Amino acid sequence: MKMILRSFLLLFFLISSSHSQVRFSEDMPFLKARKLALEIGWQPYATQEVGRNGFPWSAAEKRMLDQGFAEISSCSEGETYCNFFYFREGKCLLLESKGEQLKFMRLAYWKVVPCPAKE
């Protein structure tokens, strides 16, 4: 019985450790956070095709799309914050970045949330 329990605990540890080793942290480079999310199975989730509520994409959003970031949902004006969504197992991971240029963008916030409706 102890051997079965040990085997089960070891298997549980091995399965869960691949996900628990991913540690997002505030102010980490956004591209690193995105890479980590993709490595553990989150897939880009496009929330809209035309832009927010039918309006054209903002300049920051358009830049992200042009660089292959289909998961961009929205960006604010001024001090730029952008929301990106990733899908896995019926839920979405929201990564919110801060900054205007992709190579300098930093992770500001992250959370697993219900997936937004696609527009």
Q: Care to describe what's here?
A:
The protein is an alpha+beta fold. It has one domain (28-113). It has 3 helices and 5 strands. The protein has helices at residues 2-20, 30-39, 59-66; strands at 43-44, 72-75, 81-88, 91-98, 106-113. Strands 1, 2, 3, 4 and 5 form a 5-stranded antiparallel beta sheet that branches. The N and C termini lie far apart (54 Å). Mean pLDDT is 81; it is low at 2-21.
Radius of gyration: 17 Å
Count of distinct structural domains? 1
Q: Span between N and C termini?
A: 54 Å
Which geometry do the CA atoms define? globular
The largest sheet is: 5 strands, antiparallel
- Along the chain, the helix and strand elements come as HHEHEEEE
Number of helices: 3
Report low-confidence residues grouped into runs of 5 or more. Answer: 2-21
* Percent in strands: 25-35%
Number of strands: 5
Specify the helix fraction band: 25-40%
Mean pLDDT: 81
Structural category is alpha+beta
Topology:
Blueprint: H1 2-20, H2 30-39, E1 43-44, H3 59-66, E2 72-75, E3 81-88, E4 91-98, E5 106-113
Antiparallel strand pairs: 1-3, 2-3, 3-4, 4-5
Give the structure's gist in a few sentences.
The chain is of the alpha+beta class and 119 residues long.
